[in-house]
Amino acid sequence: MLRLAWRNLWRNPRRTLVTLSALVLGTGAIVGLHSYSETAYGELNRILTTQFVGHLQVHGRGWQADPELGNTVRNPVAVETTLADRLPGATSTRRVLGSGLAGTRASSAGVAVLGLEPDRDPLLSVVRGAALDGTSPRQIAVGTGVAEMLEVEPGAELVLVGQAADGSVANDRYTVRAVVDAGSGEMNGSAVFLRIADAQEFFGLGDGVHQIVVRLPTREEDVSGPVAALRSALDVATLEALGWSEIMPEFKGMIDEKRKGSQWIDIVVFVIAALGVFNAMTMATFERTREFGVMASVGTRRSRILGLVVTEALLQGAIGFALGAGIATALVLGAGSIHIGGLTQGMDVMGIRLPTVLELHLQPSALRNAAVVSLLTVLAGGLLPALRASRLQPAEATRSV
Amino acid sequence: MLRRNMTAFPLVLVLVSSSAQAAEKPPPDVPPCPSGQEKPDIAALVRRTQQMLEGASSVATMSMSIRTKAWSRKLKMKVWTRGRDYALIRVLEGGPRETGLMTLKREKQLWNYLPQAGRVMKLPSGMMGDSWMGSDFTNDDLVKGSSLADDYDAKVLEILRREASEAWRVELTPKKDAAVVWGRVELVVDRKTCLPLEQVFFDEDGKQARRMAFGDFKRVGWRDFPARMVVTPADSARETAVVYEEIEFDTPVADDTFSLRRLEAGR
Prior knowledge:
By secondary structure, chain A is of the alpha+beta class. Chain A is built from 14 helices and 14 strands. In chain A, helix 1 (2-9) crosses helix 11 (302-335) and helix 2 (13-50) packs antiparallel against helix 9. A 13-stranded antiparallel sheet of chain B has the order 6-5-4-3-2-1-13-12-11-10-9-8-7. The longest helix of chain B is centred in the N-terminal third of the chain and has 12 residues, at 10-21. The chains are: A alpha+beta, B mainly beta.
């Protein structure tokens, strides 16, 4: 029957080609678009998880909802030991987050004060000056925007004033060591960075830290497994462990939203392709009314005629999918990486710098979606004409031209 | 304890004692208290209230206690003012990093001297409404940047009748172009004595921001001065109380008190 169906397809090659091209375009569009957008989401996720947020974080309980200065992880060493035990391969860094005024005799501005481990934390890239080192005290790095606002450069002196955890006035004097890019315009324009020990001293936190930022050796988006594993081992009465999607729900929401949007695109592509297939196959069965009549009158069972027409549809679907997916794969792999810097222009979305180069990868999910769509298209487009063909009255059908 | 200044300089002593003669009677430019009136001259009432609370200059020693759910602390400080343009606050006693801290106001600009840093920092303009050193008082409260009488239009909203007393509830709305911190202020003044009882501050959106209650009135010259002021913000469980230990009004304050160079020297 397969051979019969195959032969039938090429009895009217032009029509078969029209149907195929609709399928190829549909499949190609879905595979290409999905690969592009999934690569983009993956890249944003990589930036998010490797830089500011990490895959997951440990805080003092309730800190995420209400980041009070005094609410810290009091024993970071114990948490790090648990981490090494429960999540092998994970790396972590400590951070302190506070706020204050940074200024000079001539000007000042409200800033976020971030204490970090300069040797372990990949957040900062030096624009001018030298990286903070883990040992020299009272050095400060300032975001590019802050440097511009306060007119300070490496070597300058900067005074910080803020409120310590006990309510007293924290104030101290630092030497600007570097002007840095912290990965987003928002951070660069509002943050200064201290060695974590200096930040703990400034805010009067003792050994306490606000965040333990954990990075996992994975590109998986879903980190609920590791989060649950960690939670079960931590003292949740005083600590909280949160995955990146709980820390940045807006970001997760945005990606979910966009994915939903691309499902709609799939549906539209599907409808258009299905209409084409339906049209072509209806025409084909009409033209072959006489042939089906003859088949029926020589005793071919209805189910066999139905099977034949459906097989023809499935064959077209398979060929269309293979060609479409093949072309899209070739394009995606051929393009390799594309520069979208002109499009994104260093723009930030929710505090995450948009990437300028996307390394395109073929997404298995895109192929799967395209396969499902092709199958549905040919079934929807082929089934009705097939049913019609199988129900023809042999006597009448043989008389038609 | 409140006492009048007895400066060592004879000339000043003469001035002080001559003003002390008339001390019990308010000067002629202070409007009298419109006791019990149904429709008082409201602008005059606000001016009287302001003159009661402020002088042409002042020197005060006060303690400030701040209480939040996480911590509480106490500072002792001294404040010098001259008109609305000059003020200096110096923390006399506080935590190790804040003793010696100073805030200077000169005309529209503010500086802080930070003792641990050993440096002066200029505050961004537009910080008058911000918290002074983590308290519930604003910079504006402490350096007397704006004037209830000059920067606001006043009208009586209603007469509040309480158990033993009655009070005017006065609404103050900022005049156009007035550089003020609040969207609206309500002032409650006792109808018999004209003593201010409380002030309620509303932000630009009309939401209540905080309440300031006056109490513990002490006789200072002709004034009945509230030696205790308590500020409670509307949206958090905290409170700042200021208790004046000493205050003198209209005494001469040396020019260099408000000098930036002196501030930078940390003296």
